[in-house]
Specification:
Helix content is about 25%, strand content about 25%. With about 170 residues, the chain is α+β, with helices and mostly antiparallel strands. The strands form 3 sheets. The protein has a 4-stranded antiparallel β-sheet with strand order 2-1-3-9, with no helix packed on it. Strand 7 and strand 8 form a beta hairpin.
Length: about 170
Amino acid sequence: MDIKPLDAVFVEYMKVESGGRLKRYLSRDFSDDTWCSESGIELYRSVYKFYGLNLDSCPICGPLFFDLDGDLRTRKVFKALKQSVRAVVNWFKEWGLHEQEIEIYFSGSKGFHVIIPEQVLDIKPSGDLNRINKTIAVFLKNELGIGYLDTGIYDRRRVLRLPGSVNFKTGLY
């Protein structure tokens, strides 16, 4: 897909305001710092950058990402979940990635996000990147036997909680 440097590129931010009201913003500022300036609020950012204003059909670009969730109230599940995260990281290390190229953070609720930035994998804008990412996630779930890997999250408008943002349900960051 031929994307010109001057094409509009946006990310979508979402903020949970008082009373649980959800406010959406489109922005050309990809810096999470701008949006995390208010402490104690719940913030999300779209996984993908949108190359156009029609968010349902324009080309998108973003990282390869995985969401691993489990019931963290038990030590057994927490240990198994950590082993699953490690299995995903190790699989990519076997293919030549360095551990510092892979981001891992707690979601604030049930698990962890594993993110490999688009620059690391040289991912280019595509109209169906979300479906490609889902195919990879389904493959890894089966290949590694990971029941905790959520494969139902690969829609075009997917948002993830920003690191350092509070989860109102748990009170955790």
